[in-house]
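User: For my dataset I need records formatted as: sequence, then structure tokens, nothing else. Please produce one.
Assistant:
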Amino acid sequence: MKSQNLNRILILMCINLFLFSCQDAGTHSEPPYEGPPKEHIISVERAQEMYNVYTDRRVPIIQKYEDSVKADSFKPTRYAEYDLGVVKQYIAYIEHEAKQANVDIKTLRFYLSNYPNSDKFKNGDPVKYPRKNSFFVVPTMDVSGENVGFSIEETGGKYTAVPINRHPTTQEINQDENQKDSTGQINEAGFFMPNNSTLQGGTTSLILNESHLSPPPGNNDFGNDN
């Protein structure tokens, strides 16, 4: 009897271990394949048309302006790319940080941007692509029915999702109006106002950038780099 009971216990332990292993493996597996996101996939023909419109309506303007600043046969950026592994790592990273802050990621927001005409950023970091247009990616969360970009604040082991953009105070607006950037233009108040946690430290950024830009060099799928 003792031997039979021991066998039963061992069998039950093996079954429980097997079920736990399957559940744990499923937790970390990729989501099931559900086909393409039908509302977001466009045809190659449409992509080609949109690419050509940008070539005709935007590239000459960018090139003309940059040549007026510095005559060096400037070529506007036509695309940026990331390794697939980097994209997967980024998704896993922001989902991990959002889970710690108990917040749901609603969208990924792509901001068009431009590298400064300088060898270094204001904090001293090197500028990888001076003068080149680029983009960066910001995850958003829902705040009162609106999607807003956010970062993660850690205070005393507690993680909180903090909106990147907050309404500036009157004092901040007055200070911003009195400050001008290197081009002599007034900075726009309130677009990317630093949140309080940024000023105090302890903030984790979730913004993705530093992709590979082209041209040059590059292999363009829709035409030449001009």
